[in-house]
Amino acid sequence: MIPSPNIWKWPDVYERENRAQDADGAIWAALREAVPWAGADVLDVGCGDGFHLPVFAAEAASVTGVEPHSGLVERARERVGAQVTVHRAGAAALPVPDGSVDLVHARTAYFFGPGCEPGLAEAQRVLRPGGAIAIVDLDATVAPYGDWMRADLPRYRPDLVEQFFERQGFSMRRILTTWRFPDRDTLEAVLRIEFSRPVAERAVAATTGLALPVGYRLHVRRKAAIRRP
C-alpha cells in the first residue's frame, strides 16, 4: 500500500480540493457514458473519506466503499450513514464475495501501473460477468499540473503507465477538466498539500486566477460476459 499523504494528513483541505476538482463534471460524464451505474452494485476502491460515494448511491442498487486508512473510513461512514457500506481494507484483499459487483471504481488510486496487479486481479474476482473496472487517474502529460507532478516524481513515466494498462486490456480516454476554487486561500492550500514546497510555490506563482486545467485518464476494462447456448 502506497500512502496518500495529501488526504491522510490534511483531510479538511482535501475536502476543499474535492469540491474544486472537475468543476464542470467532465469525469462524471465520461464515466456515465462508459460504465453507467444506474441499478448496479458499485464498489469504490480507495474511497478516501467517501466524497464520491453519494453520487453513486443516488442511482446504484448498492454501493460499497473500501479504504485502508482508518481515519478516512470513519469520515466516510459519517458522510454516507446507512446508505453505503464502508470497509477498512486494501485493494489487494477486497472484502466482498466473488462475482458480486457490476462496477469497480478507483479514482487516483492506481497511479503507478506496474505493481497494481494484485489489486486488478481482485477487481476481476469480484466483478460479475459483463461488469467493468473503471480507473480514473491524473494525466501527467497535460500541463501545467502534469509538469508539476513530474517535477516531484522524476522517475514517473506516464507513457509506461499507459502501456501497462493497455497490456492489461484496458481502453483509455483522456479527459480535460477544470479545477475551480472559491478563493485564493483554498487554491494555495490545495497546491501546498499536493506538491513539495519548491514545486508548490512555483505552482502558486504560476496560477494567477482561481481556475486550473487538469488532465485525467479514464481506463476501462470489462469482464467477459457468459455466453449462453
TrEMBL record:
GO molecular function: methyltransferase activity
Membrane-spanning residues: none
Protein name: Methyltransferase family protein
InterPro entries named among the record's database cross-references: Methyltransf_25, Methyltransf_Superfamily, SAM-dependent_MTases_sf
Source organism of this protein record: Pseudonocardia hierapolitana
Any one of the GO BP annotations: methylation
Xref: Pfam families: Methyltransf_25
Keywords: Methyltransferase, Transferase
Entry keyword annotation includes Heme: no
Domain Methyltransferase: start-end pairs: 42-131
